[in-house]
Sequence to fold (1023 residues):
Amino acid sequence: MHSPKEEQGEPLKRSFSEANSDPPDWMVLDDNETAKEEDPSSSSKPKDFNPRGYQLQVYEVAKRRNIIAVLDTGVGKTMIAVMLIKDFGQAIESTESKKLIIFLAPTVHLVNQQFEYVKDHTSLEVEQYYGAKGVDEWTLDCWEKETKEHDVLVMTPQILLDALRKAFLSLEMVSLMIIDECHRATGNHPYAKIMKEFYHKSNNKPKIFGMTASPVVSKGKKRSKIMAVLTIKDQFFKENDLEAPWCVLSSNNCDGQMSELECVLDSLIYTIEDRTEMEACVPSAKESCRFFDPAQFSSLDLKAKVEASWLKIDASLSNLQSSLQTSYKDMYDKLKNLRKRLSNDHAKVLHCLDNLGLICAYEAVNICLENILDTTEESKAYTESVLQYKNFLEEVQCRIGESLPLGDKNFLNSGFDYLKAVDLGYISPKLHELLQLFQSFGETRQVLCLIFVERIITAKVIERFAKKLSCLSHFMVSYMTGSNTSVDSLAPKMQKETLESFRSGKVNLLFTTDVVEEGIHVPNCCYVIRFDLPKTVRSYVQSRGRARQNNSEFIMMLERGNVKQRNQLYDIIRSEYSMTNSAIKRDPDSDPCLLKDHTFEETNVFIVDVTGASVTADSAVSLIHKYCGKLPGDKYYTPKPNFQFTSSEGLYKCKLTLPVNAAVQTIVGPPSRNSHLAKQLVCLEACKQLHQMGALDDHLTPSIEEPSENACISKGKDSGAGAGAGTTKRKELHGTTCIQALCGSWGEKSDDAVFFAYKFDFKCNIITVVYSGFVLLIESKLADDVGNTEMDLFLIGKMVKASVSSCGQVHLNAEQMMKAKRFQEFFFNGLFGKLFVGSKSSGAPREFLLRDKTSSLWSPSHMYLLLPLEDNSTDELRIHWPGITACTLAAEFLNKNSLLGTEQSDDDGSNPSLNSTCSPVTDCKETNIIRFANSSVDANSLRNTVVLAIHTGRIYCIIEAVSDKTAESSFAETVDTVSSEFATFYEYFYKKYNIVLKHPGQPLMLLKQSHNPHNLLVNFNDE
Fold:
């Protein structure tokens, strides 16, 4: 898509008009304006700002075509984005068709920051979106409301990707898409998936503006010699008395990574060649290295003891886990996760011993103990396993404590001898050097220092250690990590509060992982320390860019004599040099489509025709997990999929087993070249089948049942617990398992059979209310106390006494067996709307479930018959064979009239399979006969007649005929809706279901709905 002020050209080859070189009238240039970007966290910001020359230069190019702006951190890339937003915003206001501007940022912190910046510098309606706001559960109506009320949507890329996949949003609705930190658009990142799955397939593409300080992510593998030696790190080589290495990321490798990024983003890299103005305006940090000696203290004995304790407990948990693998899957999975957590904690302790010293290792054990799981309501076996895990940590704590005889707190007073502590292994030389750095800052409280570490546990333990040091008591210390699934992670709210405290100066020393490397703006940050070296060019450039204050310092900590660290750092520095040169030399006027022959077609994808919602093999696995997560569960049972793999002749097959309460049970996927693809493909097939069964709706979101009446009654009590309508908290779990008494072997047989019979009678406390009885026929005999019992069932406003009594054995001949099985197949599938499979939207033809062989409907583990009894029957067992025969005849009728209920018809819309012998339409008004597809019934005899609605595939009970309403009546008035596209019921059925009513003059039927199963064992009325 072109700039909003430009005319549309050829869709596959863009034609950009030359932009006016004059700045927009809303910008005011001021030569005396400082170069410093405004702080997005500031509470009061001017609506106008003063772009620099290099910003205008990039802006003009961005108006002409899609670009990736490669500029240093802190030079004002967001300001250029806002200039584009204002430009497109003017076009939005001047046109009738609503177009959106989407601003993507990879983290919640950046979404918060960019949202505030755009909101404060434009007059457009702006909103932010991320997972913690509950966006994942939004419906189409929610998104339609948001898009109507807002112009600019700032969000994480996963939110947009999910909305596109569910067809809640489309890129045709978007005029401009800004991609912050766009170097992430590689591999399986949501940025790359958005572009490949949707952008490149779109006929009306939005304009793309990408922003990054480092278009190359890694340092690469290919290296070549260059003829110049950079002097950036002279100090580094002098300190180590080493010759500078001559290896560097090659230009070819840089070009390859950049070309890949350009192809994915359909944009060309653009940077400023003349950096004079930027260097004059934007403060750059002074880079230096801080060296520490290798660790001299040996903790081999202590590590060996810790290792032995870990192996002992892990072996014990492993044995217990193996014994439960087949019988108790949930318990098996819990033990598997517990062992993984035990292994992680063991690794954390060893890492701290090697890199930080005994005191921090002791603190690491304390942190692990604080995160011990609560097993109050767990099983005895799992509780004992967690106790073993806790005993391991306490044993390790004790062993480390033996090496700290006075306790770590006694060492940390004003007389603490750091050098002696290093010799004794209490702190590592690396940690000692960091403390020396902090002390060099002096007594000022104006210091803002970011310390980047590789592991979360490192940030947490050093933060705790630093807080105990009297020499650092004038500093406020904190830590910040990402909000991943780790037990050590921070919640988004806590992250935001910590970052705000650091920005405002309430926190001086902030230990953090790479969560704040990219884009976070802290204008007063004067020191950035890389406690752990960066591993990529991106990490190096981004972390250095956090030092924003004038005369700030970027300090990297290196071990003396460590050649590996030296080469790692030098390669990254040289790679940045190659990256910058490659970016400058790129032609801004070439076509990104010609750079590489790329195809982004996704072959393994399922698309819902009605909405356009899609699921790929890659996204199918997460969708299946999400579907299972919506199924009812409790603290003892978590519904989740099970995958089993088999291999043959180098190909893999995956068998997917879903929970017993899922719409589909077992699926075997196609042969694949590896197990990962096999898992994806079987999940994709499962998604197709779940959509076909209605378990996934047309937006491919799990269909959630309406809450039961009982749940509504108890809403008042539970409303404070946050149990929303439609959530699993409003459901009650009745676990299912294989019951031996219900097993049978007669499913495949067509001859007679003998059963044990158990009669079900129901008596209501309201005498006028009468319920029909049933008989349960099974192969096995139940215990006397089970086969003869009573219980109370609690309904709304009444109670029913249910009794079960043994009636001995019952013999059914071959004909009765056939009818009984067909009754059960027809009646119970009809109750839940499952008599027809397939739909137009799923791509599978709609067919009658009982059309072909029905043996697949019968499982040996659920082999029973539940048949109706005649009303007012005495103790004698009298099965209601007329009702059973009626169901059998109805099934036969649907089989013979195969097109009834399908989406096929003749040109006139009529169903050719029905040879109706009914009277003309007018006859219906003159007689008292109601005509159905397979019979005619006197209107006075309709009450309690069971009917099947072809369009829903559900069975209903007739309450009465509505004499004053026919299919020719007004649809809108009858259904009590404000407006409708259908004038009459006749038109409704024809247009929506392609059904032509033969007798539209007949009265309409008032039906009693069938209901989802409710829990009648609990008296909700007393709660």
